[in-house]
Amino acid sequence: MSEQETPVPNPVPTCVGVIMDGNRRWARTHGLPALEGHRKGYAKLTEMMRWCEEAGVTHLVVYALSTENWNRSPEEVSYLMDLFRVMLDDLEKERDQKKIAIHFAGDLSRFPHDIASRMEEVHATNPKDAEHHLWVAASYGGKAEVLAGINTLLARGVTKVDERTFCDALWTAGMPDPDIILRTGGEKRLSNFLMWHSGYSELFFLDTKWPDLSKVEFDEVLKQFVNRKRNYGV
To answer: From the candidates 21, 23, 177, 179, which is the catalytic residue?
Structure first.
């Protein structure tokens, strides 16, 4: 950068992706069952939605259930399904009160029928003039999404694909690429989250476990993003 050039601050991010890691470790730290960690994690999601709304972030993408999570114990999977039922009830009320569009991205066929049909119903009745969007990556994996997109295009008989055509065939069709991907819990990897979309995302890794994340920490991530110089390419 020359002496005459000054860095131009990034605007508030349009889209923030979150890997909500650390629920079970939070529970162990507090001497609680792992299931209690998931409950606290869901409570934190409702806070994060409010923080994004207050900050002007219009799209929030959360990694709620990976394709690998189906391999956990039957008790834990059953609890997670009950938590999804509660979440659907809550999100439907939130959507109607605040003009929030709710989207579900993943292999929804793996969910129990009542949950999958509710997800489809909630998405189908989203407000057309939504000001904020919540994307719930559920039964989701980045590699699985790419393969599903390819198979969708093959089934349509498409023989030539550009980026837009491919994006429209993905589970996340219509979602903007995340400006930020934030992972809590101390791990420094994306774990198959938004593989196609994260090429130019700014990555933030926090040691804080998801249920303990504070608004101060989230605001600091946004502040650092605004002051970063984003380079596209090498």
So the answer is: 21
User: Is it the case that residue 3 has pLDDT exceeding 50?
Assistant: no
- Domain ranges within the chain, ordered by starting residue: 19-225
The residues that bridge with 16 in the sheet, in sequence order, are 60, 180
Provide the H-helix boundaries in the chain: 23-29, 34-55, 74-98, 113-124, 142-155, 163-168, 215-227
CA distance 196 to 100: 25
Q: Which is the catalytic residue, given 10, 69, 126, 192?
A: 69
Query: What CA–CA distance (Å, rounded) separates 27 from 62?
Result: 20
Average of pLDDT values for 151-178? 97
pLDDT tens-digit readout, 174-221: 999 999 999 999 999 999 999 999 999 999 999 999 999 999 999 999
In the CATH hierarchy, which top-level class contains the domain 19-225?
alpha beta
Percentages (nearest 5) of helix, strand, coil residues in the chain: 45, 15, 40
For residue 183, the Cα-to-chain-centroid distance in whole angstroms is: 10
Question: Edge-to-edge strand order for the sheet containing 132-140?
Answer: 100-105, 132-140, 59-66, 15-19, 180-183, 202-205
Q: pTM for the full model?
A: 0.92
Report yes or no: 77 and 115 within 8 Å, Cβ to Cβ. Answer: no
Residue of 194, 181, 201 whose CA lies nearest to 146: 194
107 classed as catalytic:
no
- Residue 233 has what pLDDT? 60
Q: Catalytic residue at 21?
A: yes
